[in-house]
Structure formats: C-alpha cells, structure tokens
C-alpha cells in the first residue's frame, strides 16, 4: 500500500505523523501541521481508501496500523509522535499497542473508545466521493464490536469534544483512566482540530512540552 503523503518541516527534525478520520484526507491537517513545522517533520498521509491513496479490497484498524508501519519505514523514521483524529486515533492506538518502541507520544482526538458504539450506516451520499464507500461498513462493524484495548506504554493525551460530540464522553474518560492518559476536553464537537484549531494546537504543544518531546 503506497500512501499519498503530505509533509512539512525538515526531514532532520523529530517526526510527527497525523492520521485523519474516516472520509477525510491528510489535507485536513494543513493548519495544524503548518503550526508545528518549525520544529517537527510533519507527515500526513491519505490513509488507504481515502483521498489520493489507493482503494483496497479490505479495511480494518489493523490494516491502517500496518500501513502506518510501512509509512514510517519508507520515511526512515525510527520513532514518531502520532496524532490521530477519530478513525485515525484508533489506528494510532492500535499501532502503539503493537509497536510501542516506534511511538514517542500519542495524541488521540475524539478517538472512538473500545466499547460497542451501536453506530448505524448512513445512506451513501450521491455523486463522486473522495473516499471508498466500501470502507464505511467495515469500519463501523469493527467499532460496534471492538476488541479490548491492550496496554499502551507511551505518554498519551486524549482530547475529547464535549457534549457536542456524538461519541460517549464518559467512555472516552474511562479510556483515558485505563491508559493513565492526560484528558483534555475542548467543547467543540467531534472535529476539535477544525472547530477550535488554536485550542487544540495549544493542548498538543503543552502536552509535548510536559513530556519533553
């Protein structure tokens, strides 16, 4: 799987990988990435089935995590900070479970917690889509019947969107407690980095400073 990828900053700087949510693409991180490119090599792929990356025969969070592993190897990145929104957050924490030595810190923005969510598949929008519609039923099925969350041994920040979000905030808080993660709530709904970009960036920057990243 060869992913279309956007980059900012110097390749000699510490790496930060940004993973977008379902139906999005790496361009959603443009403003956030630009604000961190002064000291980070920021890498934002279009994940499989999204944007300019290839469509695939199968989609799962393990496959997204495997793609991430290949991406790090392709960029010769030994360790990276992972920032994941929604679907990208699940891919990020699944990767951190499997390969903690490759992750220096983890930021999960409105990542669905590993509890049955009872999500329903909406009708397909009309017209051409910027992503593969076939991924949605596969991802929703996995979110509705997730496997238990394993141990994550890296510093973790969880950013919740508050009451405007469709995700269960109490379960996100429980996930933060299970992971001994820092929890920050920004009352912006599911798209925190888009609706409150300055506050989201400030929370990430403070977290990385506290962890000496």
UniProtKB/TrEMBL annotation:
SUPFAM superfamilies: alpha/beta-Hydrolases. It comes from the Bacteria. Belongs to the peptidase S33 family. GO terms for molecular function: hydrolase activity. The lineage of its organism: Bacteria, Bacillati, Actinomycetota, Actinomycetes, Pseudonocardiales. Keywords: Hydrolase. The keyword Hydrolase applies. Residues 14-124 form the AB hydrolase-1 domain. InterPro entries: AB_hydrolase_1, AB_hydrolase_fold, Carboxylesterase_BioH, Peptidase_S33. Pfam families: Abhydrolase_1. This is Alpha/beta fold hydrolase. Signal peptide: none annotated. PANTHER family: HYDROLASE ALPHA/BETA FOLD FAMILY, PEROXISOMAL MEMBRANE PROTEIN LPX1.
């Amino acid at each position: 799987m060869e992913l279309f990828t956007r980059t900012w900053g110097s390749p000699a700087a510490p790496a930060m990988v940004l993973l977008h949510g379902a139906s999005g693409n790496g361009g959603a991180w443009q403003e956030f990435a630009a604000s961190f490119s002064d000291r980070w090599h920021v890498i934002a792929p279009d994940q499989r089935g999204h944007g300019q990356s290839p469509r695939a025969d199968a989609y799962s969070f393990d496959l997204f995590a495997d793609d991430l592993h290949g991406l790090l190897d392709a960029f010769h990145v030994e360790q990276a900070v992972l920032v994941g929104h929604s679907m990208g957050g699940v891919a990020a924490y699944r990767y951190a479970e499997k390969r903690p030595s490759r992750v220096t810190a983890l930021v999960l923005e409105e990542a669905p917690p590993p509890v049955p969510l009872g999500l329903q598949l909406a009708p397909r929008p009309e017209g051409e889509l910027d992503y593969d519609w076939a991924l949605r039923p596969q991802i929703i099925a996995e979110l509705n019947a997730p496997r238990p969350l394993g141990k994550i041994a890296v510093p973790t920040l969880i950013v919740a969107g508050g009451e405007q979000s469709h995700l269960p905030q109490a379960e996100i808080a429980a996930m933060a407690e299970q992971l001994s993660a820092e929890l920050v709530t920004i009352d912006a709904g599911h798209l925190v980095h888009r609706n409150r970009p300055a506050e989201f960036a400030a929370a990430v920057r403070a977290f990385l400073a506290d962890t000496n990243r």
